[in-house]
Amino acid sequence: MKKITDSFLCLGYWPSAGSFGFNTDILATNPINLSVVLGVLVFFGKGVLSDLLDNRKQKILRTIRNSEELREGAIEQLEKAQARLRKVETEADRFRVNGYSEIEREKLNLINSIYTTLEQLENYKNEAIHFEQQRVINQVRQRVLKQALQGALGTLNSCLNNELHLRTVSANIGMFGTMKEKITD
C-alpha cells in the first residue's frame, strides 16, 4: 500500500527520474502540456492563422476601397443634386417674380375690364331709363289727348244741335268749295 505522501495530493512529491509513467501531479503537468500544445499550435497553425488573417485583411481592404468608391460616388451625386437644387431654386425665384408681375398685370386688366363693363352697364341703364321715360311720356300724351278729345266730343255733342250741326257742315262745305276753286285755278 502506498503512503499518503505518495499520492498526487502531496505537493512536494516528485517521481523518480528515469522511469516511464504518468505524472499525476496536476500543477506540474499543466504548464508542460500547455507549452507543448501551444508549440504545436504555433508550428502547425501559424500558416493557417496567417492565411486567415491575410484573407481577413484583404476583405477589410476591399471593403474600405468599396466604401471609398461609394463615398466618392455619393459626394459626386450630392454635388450634382445641390447644383440641380440651386438651378431649380433660381428658376423658382424667376417664376415667382414673373408670376407676381403676371398676377399684377392680370389684376389690372381685370380691374380695367370691370370698369369698362360697369360703364357699359351704366350706359345701358341710362338708355333703358330714357326709353322707359319716353314710353311713359307717350302713354301720358295719348291718355291726355284721348281725354281731351273725349272732353271736346262731349262738349260738342252737348252744345251741338241739329241747326248748329247743319251750319257747321255748310261752312265746311263752303270752305271746301273755295279751296277746290283755288286748286283748279
Any key phrases for this structure?
185 residues, 2 helices, 85% helix, rod-shaped, disordered N terminus
Summarize the amount of helix as a percent range: over 70%
Number of helices: 2
Distance between the termini: 200 Å
Secondary-structure-based class equals: mainly alpha
The amount of beta strand, in percent, is: under 5%
What Rg, in angstroms, do the CA atoms define? 68 Å
Shape descriptor reads rod-shaped
Subcellular location: Membrane; Plastid, Chloroplast thylakoid membrane
Membrane topology: Single-pass membrane protein
Family: Belongs to the ATPase B chain family.
Protein name: ATP synthase subunit b, chloroplastic
Could you describe the 3D structure shown?
The protein is mainly alpha-helical and 185 residues long. Helices cover 85% and strands 0% of the residues. The protein is rod-shaped and about 195 Å long. Residues 1-12 have low confidence and may be disordered.
SSE map:
Blueprint: H1 26-159, H2 162-184
Protein name: ATP synthase subunit b, chloroplastic
Membrane topology: Single-pass membrane protein
Family: Belongs to the ATPase B chain family.
In a few lines, what is going on in this structure?
GO terms for molecular function: proton-transporting ATP synthase activity, rotational mechanism. The chain is mostly helical and 185 residues long. It has helices at 26-159, 162-184.
